[in-house]
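User: Teach me something about this protein's shape.
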Amino acid sequence: MRDLEIRGAGSLVGEIQHGHMEQVGYDMYCKLLDEVMREMQGKKVEEEKDDDIQIDLNVSSYIPDEFIESSDMKINIYQDIALCRNEEEIVDITDEIIDRFGTMPKEVENLLEIARIKNMAKRKKVNKISQKGQNVVFYFTTIDFDVTNLINIYKNSIKFSPSALPYITYKIDLEKSVIKQVKDFLKNL
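Assistant: First, the predicted structure itself:
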């Protein structure tokens, strides 16, 4: 925080991230800050399993300067979103954002939807979701779902790769919402 005071937040709250945060990702950065703060307050910090789920989708998901001008406020909102563990917490932060700042721009809605995707992915034992052009790849820690059901639903739009780290490649329709297609896919697992 002292470094932020001296140099300013820079792109910390924009579309581009730099420094240590870029190396570990914003969610992990927030978790680490949260753990340090709890330790400093003398609270017990329990280590979570499946700590960081990586989401790399071609959607803009950030808080625009026009929506929230204060860098401190942006950091707080980013941290609150990153620390959401269930739908109830996401709904609470959504309500708080709307109450305090008004109608959310699409980029902020996307940020909240990605938090939802992370929670869904964690329940489905997906540890990474990565979009590469028209394909979205879902990487699993273990596969414990009905493959036949997926084949019936998606037919030739999916490919299974049963390797040491199994993954499914899903060919999406770029004319439709990437976020909606990813959420629907996770629901069908």
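Now, about its shape. Strands lie at 54-56, 126-132, 135-140, 158-161, 167-171. Residues 106-123 form the longest helix (18 residues). If you'd like, I can walk through any region in more detail.
User: That's plenty for now, thanks!
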